[in-house]
């Protein structure tokens, strides 16, 4: 058996030497399908910013009330909940790849309905379908990207979620500015067609295959994505050995008892609490409010000195450039450093913008300088896009142990959905009652509170394997080293029969 394995290993090694496509490019292909979906998600979030402005025109084919407008922008949050409820089961039973494929279908149907909509009810249904697909993908995206990626590339790939959001928002606002809203919807909806094609070209993730006992397929997928080198082979063996041990132990425990034991384990509840704070921080920073209500918000910030659509595109440009920078920064610097730098910049900028707006209202700023609040507002966009936008998604893909990854992502995603709905639904009322200046003060205070909790709760995950992060929450420091030094041989015997 030993000689046979060495022969197979030698043959595999020769095969991979002949492959012309590098592991990085293979990982990039696998990640790109999810990235295209998230570009569509960014377009979903930002589209009301141009849709509602066009529908407010006197010659609009559709007439909306202020209540309709707030529901069209916020119903994504409620729909996200329904998608996130289904996501854990789908991720666990159907796998990452098929879940990603299926999530494109309701989104495509939503955009098709929106293109043909002739009354507010159809608009709401179309937005609900888009949000339902977004909910499934909100749980699936960070998990899929993290499981496709090598540790050295994982930060950059997970940061592409932030890049995707910003790109989608820019796409929606540019097309919505240049085109009629139905034509703009065609352009935005096409992202999901491209996403479906790219996802279909990628394999299932190795960790998911290992949870199902498909160890041969796991090895094949892992080596397709990562090639063959000492570090990747060690990581593969740790993944397989750890999962074989869990499969054997789980056979002795009933499902209900296993679920009850799960919620009491620190490697489950600690990451879940961290991600709750992460997603509350994400939404309370105005991450989804700003693109949904950019035009009226910037009209108040600039004091009418800039054309509304021009100021909207300036915000989109700053967000897009910063998101590109974030892909580099997140991969180079520690996660905590990037997050708390972004939090600090955002809080200072929000409070300073509010101060300038109050001073302008009381007449302390001359008319020729009415535009000055625009500067700290753009710095705020920079800060939240650099740190608050990418890091929660990067952490979401890394922090949950493999056994609880689907369930943990679903539970924490519920907070994302609820906060999405609450923040976006209440934003128009908040802008009317206390203005942008008061709303920014609330956002700044909320970011400060969440940041304080995360400062004490969040560990550093950069350049660690997913298994090392799991060991951190378990409180195990030497298990990985012990496995690499020889204990894996004892555990490996458990899977010999499965691998043939």
UniProtKB/TrEMBL annotation:
Q: Please report the record's description of how this protein sits within the membrane.
A: Multi-pass membrane protein
Q: By its UniProt entry, which InterPro entries does this protein fall under?
A: MFS_dom (IPR020846), MFS_sugar_transport-like (IPR005828), MFS_trans_sf (IPR036259), MFS_Trehalose_Transporter (IPR050549), Sugar/inositol_transpt (IPR003663)
Protein name per the record: Major facilitator superfamily (MFS) profile domain-containing protein
Biological source species = Euphydryas editha
Entry coiled-coil feature ranges: none
* Keyword Transmembrane helix assigned: yes
Chief site of localization:
membrane
Q: What are the residue boundaries of the Major facilitator superfamily (MFS) profile domain, all occurrences included?
A: 28-462
Its taxonomic path starts at: Eukaryota, Metazoa, Ecdysozoa, Arthropoda, Hexapoda
Identify the PROSITE patterns for this entry: MFS (PS50850)
**Protein's cellular compartments:** Cell membrane
Q: Name one GO molecular function term.
A: transmembrane transporter activity
Keywords carried by this UniProt record:
Cell membrane, Glycoprotein, Membrane, Sugar transport, Transmembrane, Transmembrane helix, Transport
Name a single GO cellular component. Answer: plasma membrane
Which ranges does the record mark as transmembrane? 28-50, 70-91, 155-175, 181-201, 268-289, 309-331, 338-359, 371-395, 402-424, 436-458
């Amino acid at each position: 058996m030993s000689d046979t394995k060495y022969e197979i290993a030698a043959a595999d090694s020769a095969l991979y030497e002949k492959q012309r496509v590098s592991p990085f490019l293979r990982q990039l292909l696998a990640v790109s399908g999810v990235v295209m979906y998230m570009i569509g998600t960014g377009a979903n979030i930002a589209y009301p910013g141009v849709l509602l402005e066009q529908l407010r025109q006197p010659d609009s084919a559709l007439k909306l009330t202020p209540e309709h407008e707030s529901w069209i922008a916020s119903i994504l949050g409620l729909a996200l909940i329904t998608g996130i409820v289904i996501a854990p089961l789908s991720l666990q039973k159907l796998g990452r790849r098929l879940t990603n494929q299926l999530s494109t279908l309701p989104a495509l149907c939503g955009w098709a309905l929106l293109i043909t909509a002739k009354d507010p009810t159809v608009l709401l249904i179309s937005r609900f379908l888009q949000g339902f697909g977004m909910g499934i993908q909100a749980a699936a995206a960070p998990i899929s990207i993290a499981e496709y990626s090598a540790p050295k590339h994982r930060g950059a790939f997970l940061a592409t979620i932030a890049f995707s959001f910003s790109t989608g928002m820019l796409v929606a606002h540019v097309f919505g500015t240049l085109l009629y809203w139905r034509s703009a919807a065609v352009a935005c909806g096409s992202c999901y067609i491209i996403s479906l094609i790219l996802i279909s070209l990628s394999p299932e993730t190795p960790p998911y295959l290992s949870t199902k006992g498909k160890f041969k397929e796991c090895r094949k997928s892992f080596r397709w994505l990562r090639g063959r080198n000492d570090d990747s082979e060690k990581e593969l063996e740790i993944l397989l050995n750890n999962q074989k041990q869990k499969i054997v132990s789980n056979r002795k425990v009933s499902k209900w008892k296993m679920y009850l034991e799960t919620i009491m384990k620190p490697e489950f509840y600690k990451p879940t609490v961290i991600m709750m704070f992460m997603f509350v921080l994400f939404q309370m920073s105005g991450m989804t409010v700003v693109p949904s209500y950019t035009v009226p918000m910037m009209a108040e910030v600039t004091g009418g000195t800039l054309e509304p659509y021009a100021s909207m595109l300036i915000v989109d440009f700053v967000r897009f450039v910063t998101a590109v920078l974030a892909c580099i920064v997140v991969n180079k610097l520690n996660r905590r450093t990037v997050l708390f730098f972004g939090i600090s910049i955002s809080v200072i900028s929000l409070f300073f913008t509010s101060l300038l707006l109050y001073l302008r209202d009381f007449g302390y700023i001359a008319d020729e300088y009415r535009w000055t609040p625009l500067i700290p507002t753009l710095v705020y966009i920079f800060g939240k896009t650099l740190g608050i936008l990418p890091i929660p998604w990067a952490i979401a893909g890394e922090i949950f142990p493999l056994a609880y990854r689907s369930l943990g992502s679903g539970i924490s995603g519920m907070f994302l959905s609820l906060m999405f709905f609450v923040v976006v639904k209440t934003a128009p009322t908040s802008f009317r009652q206390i203005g942008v200046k008061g709303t920014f003060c609330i956002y700044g205070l909320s970011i400060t509170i969440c940041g304080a909790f995360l400062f004490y709760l969040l560990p550093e995950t950069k350049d660690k394997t997913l298994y090392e992060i799991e060991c951190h929450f378990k409180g195990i420091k030497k298990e990985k080293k012990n496995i690499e030094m020889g204990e894996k041989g004892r555990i490996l015997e458990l899977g010999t029969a499965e691998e043939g």
